[in-house]
Amino acid sequence: MKFDKWTVALAAVGTVSLASAAKAEEKPSAAVTALTATTISGYVDTSAEWNPGTGNANLPPYKFNGPSKADGFNLDVFQLRIEKPLDETPWSAGYRVDLWAGPDANVLNTQSYFTPLGGSSTRSGQSDFAIRQAYVSLNMPVGNGINWKVGVFDSIIGYESVEAPNNPNFTRSYGHSIEPQTHTGVLASYPFGSAFSVSAGVANTIGPAINERAQGPNGAFGVTKAESYKTYMGSAALTAPDTMGFLAGSTIYGGIVNGFSDAAANDGGNGVQTSFYAGTTIATPVNGLRFGGSFDDANQAYVRGQTWAVAGYASYQATEKLSFHARGEYLKDSSGNLFPNNGDGPLYYSADHVLALTGTVQYDLWKNVISRIEIRWDHSMDANRAFGPTDEATGNGSLKNALMLAANVIYKF
């Protein structure tokens, strides 16, 4: 048997014996066996943005946007994934951890809660680091197999993903921005076959703070619930089988999440939020052309007004490397969920009806690299101005339109 030079050196000074080293080489340790099944992957997300005009105090408030990204080059986020997937054995187990570093990590707001001296509740400060997901995955051989997630996991509803490479566009939609993002709890998924599957789960709160409790500690304006109060969620997905011709692979998806939310405790709310989602992706007879649609509703009990969004998507894969993507979206936000009100009366409403149009060209010139050029236009459809420099009289923006041109480069490994 051949030994490396370090083993031979240790044997020479009597630290180890060659016999024991040979035995160790023949029988890997449990730790080595576990690591062999572990995969490491991730991506680095970078961008450059140009916002025509002057004044970036009031930019469209979709997720991962803000003045710090306007008119310059950006590191958005670095994601590291460490995972042991479920295998084919009946009682298989695994895990997954998604770690984020960079400015977008602060937007996740998954920082755990703690209680400092004095009894007040608060969240730890920003640090450009966050845990996106961390859960144990389990398979239970009942019927077609029940898959469990125990820990911190992404929300089960939404057309777009918090993971940038999985989206057709660089910027996120308003619908994605009002959806629940991260839950701490337990989720079960069951496939009735290749065409129909369901998921159901229970969590502490709507999220996203890890280990947050509805009964406290929390930062929700003094609103708390009973210790038994939890968040409940469910979803169902229907996929068209191969027998449906060009429609094969098309999906219809619906879901609901109900529970405690910090945002729902503001403005006299009771802390209860119900999020509804419905979405579809439709294949077409034209090779490479797909359409999609989504509806998101963030219903917050006893909060004035409504917040919901409807969006349409179109994607065309022209060649192996070249693709085109478009999104049109309408947002109704009279509750001020995304566009906050700065006073009483219509004068102080920053926006109520918003239209957003986005066009993206993707050309993957390099291996493992996603490269995009995107243009986005946001428009306030009522008399209120929401964008640009701040109007001193209202505290809102002074423009009805916001235009943005962006370049996005992502390396996946």
**Distinct helical segment count:** 5
SSE run: HHHEEEHEEEEHEEEEEEEEEEEEE
CATH C-level class of the largest domain is Mainly Beta
- Strand order across the biggest sheet? 1-2-3-6-7-8-9-10-11-12-13-14-15-16-17-20
Which of globular, elongated, flat, extended, rod-shaped describes the shape?
A: globular
Cα radius of gyration in angstroms: 25 Å
Beta-strand percent range: 35-45%
Q: What is the count of distinct domains? A: 2
First-to-last CA distance: 35 Å
* Largest sheet entry: 16 strands, antiparallel, barrel
CATH topology of the largest domain: Porin
Assign a percent range to the helix content.
under 10%
- The CATH superfamily of the largest domain is identified as Porin
Please mark out the parts with pLDDT under 50 across 5 or more consecutive residues, or reply none: 6-11, 18-24, 115-122
Structural class of the secondary elements?
mainly beta
CATH architecture of the largest domain: Beta Barrel
- How many strand segments? 20
Mean pLDDT: 87
Task: Set out the fold topology.
Layout: H1 5-12, H2 18-26, H3 30-36, E1 39-50, E2 72-84, E3 93-101, H4 103-108, E4 113-114, E5 122-123, E6 129-140, E7 146-154, H5 174-178, E8 182-191, E9 196-203, E10 231-239, E11 251-260, E12 272-283, E13 289-300, E14 307-317, E15 322-333, E16 353-363, E17 369-380, E18 387-390, E19 397-399, E20 401-412
Antiparallel strand pairs: 1-2, 1-20, 2-3, 3-6, 4-5, 6-7, 7-8, 8-9, 9-10, 10-11, 11-12, 12-13, 13-14, 14-15, 15-16, 16-17, 17-20, 18-19
